[in-house]
Amino acid sequence: MIEVKNLFFEYPGKLALRDVSLKARKSEITALTGPNGAGKTTLLRSLAALEQPISGSIRVAGIDIIAQPRLCHEKVGYLADFFGLYGDLTVEQCLLYMAHSHGITEDAGPDAVKRAAARLHIEDRLKQRAGTLSRGLSQRLAIAQAIIHEPAVLMLDEPASGLDPEARSQLSAMFRELSAQGITLIVSSHILAELEEYCTSMVIMNNGEITEHRHIDTMPDQQCIIDISLSHNDGSLAVFLEARPDISLLKTEGATLSFAFSPERAQQARLLETIVSHQFPVCRFAERKASLQDAYLSRFKTQEPAT
Amino acid sequence: MRLNPEFQRNIWLELTPHRLLGMPIVLGAIFLIAHLVTGLFSEGTASTAVFLFFILTVIWGSKLSSEAIRSEIRDKTWDSQRMTTIGPWSMSWGKLLGSTIFTWYGGLLCIAVLTVSSSNTSAFGSYLSVPDNLQRACILVLTGLLAQSTALYMDMVRTAGRGQTGGYSSTPGMLLGIILALIFIQYAIPSESTIEWFGQIYNQASFIIFTLVFFSGWAVIGIYRLMRRELQVANTPIVWLLFLIILPGFINGFIEESSAYGMERLDTYLLTIYFTTGLIIYFTILAEPKDPVTFRRLAFQMRHGGGKKILHHMPGWLSGLLLLGLVIIAIHIRDIPAVNLLSEPFIYPGFFAVFLFIIRDICIFLFFNFSSRPKRADTVSLIYLFLLYMIIPLIFSLLEAEQLSAAFTPWNTQGSITVISGLIQSGVMAYLAYRRWNTLSISIQA
């Protein structure tokens, strides 16, 4: 559905995308993540044909969007991280405007509005002014506007930012629903715990490059996460763990250290034995499944330059 | 038939029942005061109607149209509009007429009152006939349209140039629109005057209508082309070159054939293209994006693209410069006498020297814009140009070193010195600009 090859994008004084290549299949939900300034928004805007890259190729739903950027707007929906709504229009007028702007006929417009409103569960708000909606409902309206023309691909930049936990949960459910309806989604976000709920693959970007692209179901095969809690932490266990080549220390929160390690029980037993034999005051040793956040931290840990 | 969605949206926003009712009430109250002071549908009412029309369509209309794109960017709705399938033409006229629809509502009410007043009184020396009334209404409407389209055009120029965040002032566009309207609205007063153009005598009102259509038309074409660029539709420089050729044609109509210098109409036409293109190149170099990325795209297309793709990425000043080069060759072939349009002595190599100095000036703009911190690059460039054109020649003149002064003034009569100096200066600046651009490219790639 989406195929990006050797994409380069430059802002004055900065190469924002370096040789980016990417593929996403139909109905996939791809999480796009990485630190601030990694190039996520630039990549999404290039995929939405809002920006023109220096070189490379992008095909979305079979359309070469660098050659024919306008054509792709029939197939793509995009929601920017900072979006605006026409606050003085009603929800119905906002949706009708978008429907007609996407070439939906006068007769078909009201039906398209009802369908999009139903998908986003805002049917009861059609007569309300957009400017009076809550943040969560505004987000829903903005997404409804982006999918009113039933695009094959929907791209969302930080869609959950500023939403309360309930609204975020509803958003996750909505993305799964849209994916089940055949829409391919690319969602850029920093909130990895939520991405995990609905995404099928993850792309990690850093410094304009894709450093990792993997499918979620292939993630936990080789490593798991071990959490060790100490009665008191003087930092020496972190030094000890970091010295071992088979351990990738992810984070230290107070007296708890998390690291990636082999899922083999025998190896874990040997590790625990070694730690205890070194007199570290261990009070908890627990294994858990690797989360997106762990994968993300692991990726950036391995990229850190040696000091 | 479906209404243009952008126009429809503006109607929803601008023509609310409250506003539709409010405008005639407010205007009616003002006209009532005029009636009480000067009499029913009197000269005073007519003048009030023209004044209100100016306030509504020219001042308020220019303000609204100068903010049509800027407000979308500021309110974060521009991207969602760019993501629609509305074409550049529909978006252009939808914004131009849609954003100002309420001012036109009031403006047309004013024209209606003006027409009734003029038919009822001798407000302008005599009762106005229906054709006269129509002509005046045309002048007023076209003046409003010219002001608004100029303001929107300038808004879009600034968006394309540097205002992607919308953080720029819309005042210059609005002011330009108002100034143009002030020039033309005086012709709304009926007159028996005539205008000579290409040796033919035309009725003043008819000619003003033609002029307003000419300039409003080009402003709308300009908006359309910038809208294409905003909506990621490629432009070729053909329309821009047509403008550079047609505008001097219009101006040339006012220039008398100079038999004293043996110049034919084609000669004055070539000279007009030469001078107008030279001036317009400076406008485009100021208005267009000059960041290194723009030139990286052009360079990439020159290496890997084709002829048409190169044209899509060609800056307006570059196509203007190419036209200027061709015109200089034509001037040389036709051996046009050594005069300019002001009938001042003008040594032939001066045409070429000016061309070289324009290249130098463009390279100065590019050099400062290619810096790693290009903030206020255009202002810095203008200061350097002031120094090069005014201060340095003045110093040499005061030192009575006229030949050195000539090295910095292309209009000077010291032909060969000026040309050699222009060659050296343009060559040095082109090298410096290229080197800076290249250095920046290498540092970014690393």
Write the layout of secondary structure elements.
The complex is a heterodimer of chains A (307) and B (446).
Chain A: E1 2-11, E2 14-24, E3 29-33, H1 40-47, E4 55-60, E5 63-64, H2 69-72, E6 76-79, H3 91-101, H4 109-119, H5 135-147, E7 153-157, H6 165-180, E8 184-188, H7 192-198, E9 201-206, E10 209-215, E11 224-230, H8 236-242, E12 248-253, E13 256-261, H9 265-277, E14 282-288, H10 292-303
Helix pairs in contact in A: 3-4, 3-5, 6-7
Chain B: H1 5-14, H2 17-38, H3 43-66, H4 68-74, H5 78-82, H6 88-98, H7 101-120, H8 130-161, H9 171-185, E1 194-197, E2 200-203, H10 204-230, H11 238-252, H12 265-287, H13 292-304, H14 307-312, H15 316-334, H16 349-369, H17 377-398, H18 402-406, H19 415-445
Antiparallel strand pairs in B: 1-2
Helix pairs in contact in B: 1-6, 2-3, 2-7, 3-7, 3-8, 3-9, 6-10, 7-8, 8-9, 8-10, 11-12, 12-15, 12-16, 15-16, 16-17, 16-19
List keywords for this structure.
heterodimer, A: 307 residues, alpha/beta, Alpha-Beta Plaits, six-stranded mixed β-sheet, four-stranded antiparallel β-sheet, 10 helices, B: mainly alpha, 2% strand
Written description of the protein model:
The complex is a heterodimer of chains A (307) and B (446). With 307 residues, chain A is of the alpha/beta class. Chain A has two domains: 215 residues, P-loop containing nucleotide triphosphate hydrolases (Rossmann fold, 3-Layer(aba) Sandwich); 66 residues, Alpha-Beta Plaits. Chain A has ten helices and 14 strands. In chain A, the strands form three sheets. Chain A has a six-stranded mixed beta sheet with strand order 6-7-8-3-9-10, sandwiched between helices. A four-stranded antiparallel beta sheet of chain A has the order 2-1-4-5. In chain A, helix 3 packs across helix 4 and helix 3 runs parallel beside helix 5. Chain A is elongated and about 75 Å long. Chain B is mainly alpha-helical and 446 residues long. Chain B has a two-stranded antiparallel ribbon. In chain B, helix 2 runs parallel beside helix 7. At the A-B interface, strand 6, helix 3 and helix 5 of A face helix 1, helix 5, helix 13 and helix 19 of B.
